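At this stage, I wrote out one protein, both as residues and as discrete backbone shape codes, and that material follows here.
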Amino acid sequence: MNRRPAFLAFTSVAAVLLTAGCVSGSGGSGDSQSSAKPGEKIKLSFASYAFQDPTVKATQEIVDSWNAAHPDVQVDYQKVDPNSVHDKLVTQFAGNSAPDIIHDEAADLAGFSRQGYLADLGPLLPADLKADVPESVWKSVTIDGKVAGVPTIAQVYNLFADTDALKAAGINPPTADAPWTWDDLEANAKKLTKGGGVYGFAAGLKSPTAAVMSSSLSFDGTFFSGDEAKPDINITDKEMEVPNRLKAMLDAKTMAPNSTSLSASDVLPGFFGKKYALVLAGNYVEAQIEEKAPKGFNWTMLPLLKGTNQNQASGPQTLSVARQSKHQKEAMEFIAYYDKAENLAKIAQGDALIPVTTSAAAIVKQNLAGKHGWDVVLDAGPKLVDAPWAKADKFPQWKSEVATPAYQEFLAGKIDAATLKQRLTDGWKKASS
């Protein structure tokens, strides 16, 4: 299972959100941000989809330490299935029963924010927290001028390398100052391909859209332009660079053919078994490699691949406050506490992801200095950019119903590049009409 929750697919339950209309309860810009009376004890509900044991432990420790220091504002930590967050929130918002504090991700915020279910946190943000997060990341959580969530941790798609295999092939690993280009990847995948089921490269492309589109930003492939909610689509050569390169490596048999049917986690047994020396995956896979790699297996994470740049999509996990919450001020205070450098560093290390605050990133970098390439991955934070598709109303529907099956068929050789471009374009026009 991909550790990133499957929020982006709309299901029939989404109709509940659309028919329910905007909420009219307390909270939100211009509403009372706290209804606490003097001396009243406040209880805040906090729903989190953290499920990796180290991250659950870190989350519980943050809640416990907050509760110990704030006897009058207690936080109730509720664990949520990471694969049901979106649908559960749809039901909760419609039923006016959403938690005060919501763990979600940036790509899931636009619809909820535009329907009026999330508080605008802009007026409540502490100045030091605002300054601690890059502006490009804030853009990814700002919907129609309103801050819909506070970013916490983020992932990038990078290469994992079997360092012994690279050394045996006479290949020097890239450095932060001299990252591999996609051309370098193709050339080195060829050198590392031995035949007999041993391929130079593999990737988990069972659900390829997120990885392809995020990586396409490194070739200035933006896909969409214009109005954030209802943008126009334009599939040019820039947007086709990454899928064409992946298809070329599949055709050249320097990339494992079963990549098209594997998730990122499914790729790991072959990586450990020396079936492929390079793997492209979300950097969260680091936690699984750390846990499951056989003794003596030497590996590292490599710098982000370079096209014309090294940009990737900023799609961080987030903490939001329900507009219906009667205690928005106190909820924001807890979120600021959660994002304190030492706390966020624990969350990031538990999930093997990048903390979006510069202060937490400095702690993680110090803790993991020289370990499995963490230095260069943590330096990728400034390369995260606001993706033009992140706030489009119909993007989740288009992604699941059009883009993913189209990319799957293209990579499997069932349709050609021209058909892929046409499918993506026509599918968007139909979805957004």
Summary: Residues 53-69 form the longest helix (17 residues). The two ends are 33 Å apart (CA to CA). Confidence is low (pLDDT under 50) at residues 1-32.
